[in-house]
Amino acid sequence: MPALTPFHVAVPVHDITAARAFYGGVLGCPEGRSAPQWIDFDLFGHQFVVHLDTSRDPAKADATTNPVDGHGVPVPHYGVVLEMPDWEALRDRLQSHGVAWVIEPYTRFKGEPGEQATMFLRDPSGNALEFKAFRDIAGQLFAK
Questions:
Q1: Whole-number Å distance between alpha carbons of 93 and 13
Q2: Is residue 104, in this structure, part of any structural domain at all?
Q3: From 135's CA, which of 14, 58, 67, 85 has a CA 20 to 30 Å away?
């Protein structure tokens, strides 16, 4: 697998202060540049930006899901694939902050190609996040 380059993604949030507390405080992402309408975060080496969208209502978060391994996976969602020790540390951090899980941390596709640890949660604006990990990222990320 070739060396990966950082991705850039920008998502809407309804409250910059709540986004800063969640991404900076709960997830522990270092903050980069910012302005009153947006904040850059270092999300495990990737440029993740929140942009203020005052029309966004977290109570109306997209409720669309697809069935995967007996769970309703939120659509859309975004996240990062981590090394297993980093995933476990993030899981423990999120649990210590008492996050409300969309799908609690568990191992998906046990004993099959692509076996992975995964967890889903929502940020204060209702954006769905997934963090996953493989024991062998290079060998399992795209395994069929």
A1: 22
A2: yes
A3: 67
**108 with 118: CB under 8 angstroms?**
yes
Q: Which pTM value belongs to this model?
A: 0.89
Query: In this prediction, what percent of the chain has a pLDDT beyond 70?
Result: 94
Q: How far is CA 36 from the centre of its chain?
A: 23
- Residue 3 maps to a domain: no
Q: pLDDT by residue (tens digit) across 58-75?
A: 666 667 889 888 889 998
The residue that leads in pLDDT, 55 or 7, is 7
**Alpha-carbon span 41 to 109, nearest angstrom:** 31
Contacting residues for 51 by C-beta, under 8 A, at least 6 apart: 10, 11, 12, 13, 37, 38
129 located within any domain: yes
Domain span at residue 86?
A: 8-55+62-140
**Residues with Cβ within 8 Å of residue 129, at least 6 apart in sequence:** 77, 78, 79, 120, 121, 122, 123
Domain membership flag for residue 35: yes
Average confidence (pLDDT) over 37-56: 93
> What's the total number of domains in the chain?
1
Q: Tokens representing 103?
A: 């799908």
